[in-house]
């Protein structure tokens, strides 16, 4: 049976790993390649590297880093952050990335999803959606720029549009749950999983091992992504897999 | 293992470099080329690929690579789309393929109802079972490897590994010197490295 995937996420700034708590206040925790290799050895199923560097030099550093990651890591990895043109994606593909994730740039220019899927294949295109639940009703507002700007788009319709345009996967981060460690946004995840026929990656809210189980069972997610619980060793990937297996969830 | 002359066939498909990265991790190196002379002389040939079947077949036919690949006599390893193109026919763009294997390539259809919320493509780690090729050894039975695909090869005489997604299908094929995996050994951790090593030992 296809296994549920566990995906550590590494935020990268100037070639180093960082993790933002609620997307602010960054704290350096390590060398990305070293950390990534450790996660791969521990049984992580995939890795995500998000470049949060703004400068032009920083972008080049990131492409160089992707080269090194591809050379050393023997599991699939996704890279994201600041990809707004086909040429950005192509540079990362050539550096050895298995997938790219696009977020704000896809919201601003949805055609980018079509173009990337057409040029590089849907399997290469992860559309990341950061959303915040609206005070009333069942809708979620899509946000951009790390949750700072609200858009007119709504989570479920935007996710369906992204699929129709050729996204290979949806990475959904709940801005209400991210960094709070009280569990994933399982209700919204389940609706996404029911609505769409492409895989859904849950992100934002992991605090303990049961949260992952709930994301898979209640949220019907295909994969779950987390950062700080792994980086600060609050949960180890092997322990998490042992726990999930004992709870009847298929993991590698 | 001594250094071998390994060729990775270059054609209009993505992600060819990751196969070479995997070889480098095994202290081997592949040459990425479409040069027929080099391909014919290689000790081992790898035919990787991510892309769409009908456009890729058109390219292989036009460049003469299609005829060349069929006549190779050294061990050849097709990966992912490479494996599908070695089958007889693909539903993706409804195209005739190389016909090295008899099996046909079909599109996954989601079950209705779909209580497990299965998705297309199959993306992620799944198990290989009923292993029947020198590509594998007993230690690999039931191990997880990494897949990304929307089309699959049905079970048949050439089936060398079976995986279950929606239904059982061929996750590896072998006939004579032709080997193929639907999964990506270059992205399948230590298990994938073992499979690549087994191929290099042939």
TrEMBL record, chain A:
Any GO molecular function: imidazoleglycerol-phosphate synthase activity
Metabolic or biological pathway, per its Swiss-Prot or TrEMBL entry: Amino-acid biosynthesis; L-histidine biosynthesis; L-histidine from 5-phospho-alpha-D-ribose 1-diphosphate: step 5/9
Keyword Transit peptide: no
Positions annotated as active site in the UniProt record: 11, 130
Keywords, sorted A to Z: Amino-acid biosynthesis, Cytoplasm, Histidine biosynthesis, Lyase
SUPFAM superfamilies: Ribulose-phoshate binding barrel (SSF51366)
Presence of the UniProt keyword Nucleus in the record: no
PANTHER family: IMIDAZOLE GLYCEROL PHOSPHATE SYNTHASE HISHF, IMIDAZOLE GLYCEROL PHOSPHATE SYNTHASE SUBUNIT HISF/H IGP SYNTHASE SUBUNIT HISF/H
Protein's job: IGPS catalyzes the conversion of PRFAR and glutamine to IGP, AICAR and glutamate. The HisF subunit catalyzes the cyclization activity that produces IGP and AICAR from PRFAR using the ammonia provided by the HisH subunit.
Subunit structure: Heterodimer of HisH and HisF.
Family classification: Belongs to the HisA/HisF family.
Protein name in the entry: Imidazole glycerol phosphate synthase subunit HisF
Recorded name of the encoding gene: hisF
UniProtKB/TrEMBL annotation, chain B:
GO MF term set: glutaminase activity; imidazoleglycerol-phosphate synthase activity; lyase activity
Catalysis performed (reactions): L-glutamine + H2O = L-glutamate + NH4(+); 5-[(5-phospho-1-deoxy-D-ribulos-1-ylimino)methylamino]-1-(5-phospho-beta-D-ribosyl)imidazole-4-carboxamide + L-glutamine = D-erythro-1-(imidazol-4-yl)glycerol 3-phosphate + 5-amino-1-(5-phospho-beta-D-ribosyl)imidazole-4-carboxamide + L-glutamate + H(+)
Quaternary data: Heterodimer of HisH and HisF.
SUPFAM superfamilies in UniProt: Class I glutamine amidotransferase-like
Membrane spanning stretches: none
Active-site residues annotated for this sequence: 80, 184, 186
Phylogenetic classification of the source organism: Bacteria, Pseudomonadati, Bacteroidota, Bacteroidia, Marinilabiliales
Originating species: Alkalitalea saponilacus
Protein name: Imidazole glycerol phosphate synthase subunit HisH
């Amino acid at each position: 049976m296809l296994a549920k995937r566990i995906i550590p996420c590494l935020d990268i700034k100037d070639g180093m790993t960082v993790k933002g708590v609620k997307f602010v206040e960054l704290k350096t925790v390590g060398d990305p390649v070293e950390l990534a290799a450790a996660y791969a050895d521990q049984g992580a199923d995939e890795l995500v590297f998000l470049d949060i560097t703004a400068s032009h030099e920083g972008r080049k550093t990131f492409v160089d880093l992707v080269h090194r990651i591809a050379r050393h890591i023997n599991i699939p990895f996704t890279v994201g952050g600041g990809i707004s043109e086909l040429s950005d994606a192509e540079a990362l593909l050539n550096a050895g990335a298995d997938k790219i994730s696009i977020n704000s740039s896809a919201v601003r220019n949805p055609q980018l999803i079509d173009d990337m899927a057409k040029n590089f294949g849907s399997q290469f295109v992860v559309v990341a959606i950061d959303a915040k639940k609206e005070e009333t009703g069942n809708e979620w507002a899509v946000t951009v720029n790390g949750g700072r700007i609200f858009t007119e788009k709504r989570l479920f319709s935007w996710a369906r549009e992204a699929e129709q345009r050729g996204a290979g996967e949806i990475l959904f981060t709940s801005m209400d749950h991210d960094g709070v460690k009280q569990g994933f946004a399982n209700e919204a995840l389940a609706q996404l999983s029911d609505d769409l026929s492409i895989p859904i990656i849950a992100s934002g809210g992991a605090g303990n091992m049961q949260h992952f189980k709930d994301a898979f069972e209640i949220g019907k997610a295909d994969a779950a992504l987390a950062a700080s619980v792994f980086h600060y060793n609050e949960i180890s990937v092997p322990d998490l897999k042992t726990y999930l297996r004992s709870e009847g969830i298929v993991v590698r | 293992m001594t250094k071998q002359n390994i060729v990775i066939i270059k054609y209009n498909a993505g992600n060819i470099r990751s196969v070479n990265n995997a070889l480098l991790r095994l202290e081997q190196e592949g040459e990425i080329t479409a040069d027929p002379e080099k391909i014919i002389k290689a000790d081992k040939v790898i035919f990787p690929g991510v892309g769409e079947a009908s456009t890729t077949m058109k390219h292989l036919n036009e460049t003469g690579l299609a005829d060349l690949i069929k006549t190779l006599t050294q061990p050849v390893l097709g990966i992912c789309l490479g494996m599908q193109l070695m089958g007889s026919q693909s539903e993706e763009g409804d195209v005739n393929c190389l016909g090295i294997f008899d099996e046909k390539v079909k599109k996954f259809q989601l079950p209705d109802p779909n209580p497990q919320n299965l998705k297309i493509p199959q993306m992620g780690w799944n198990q290989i079972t009923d292993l029947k090729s020198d590509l594998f050894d007993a230690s690999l039975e039931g191990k997880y490897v990494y897949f990304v695909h929307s089309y699959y090869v049905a079970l048949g005489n050439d089936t060398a590994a079976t995986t279950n997604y929606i239904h059982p299908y061929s996750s590896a094929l072998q006939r004579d010197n032709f080997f193929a995996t639907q999964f990506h050994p270059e992205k399948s951790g230590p298990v994938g490295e073992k499979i690549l090593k087994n191929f290099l030992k042939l």
